[in-house]
Amino acid sequence: xxxxxxxxxxxxxxxxxxxxxxxxxxxxxxxxxxxxxxxxxxxxxxxxxxxxxxxxxxxxxxxxxxxxxxxxxxxxxxxxxxxxxxxxxxxxxxxxxxxxxx
Length: 102
What we know:
mainly alpha; single chain
């Protein structure tokens, strides 16, 4: 009889985090870290959405002023940048932790 290997697979952990940030951490058994990454990702998406909304409202002429354009553009860029950074970190961390568990 062969013994079942219950250790996480690094490639699968990375793919899970690529599909949904934090899922690879949960797969690795790091529930708290995974939930924290999911929460941070949700906040980043909210910032990105608000920035997009402000830019869209300005383009449609619903709001006026350079301050709205500046705020919307800033939120858009910050939100998009943080989404990318947290996503890359999530994938790398899930892969690294799964390798360390082997």
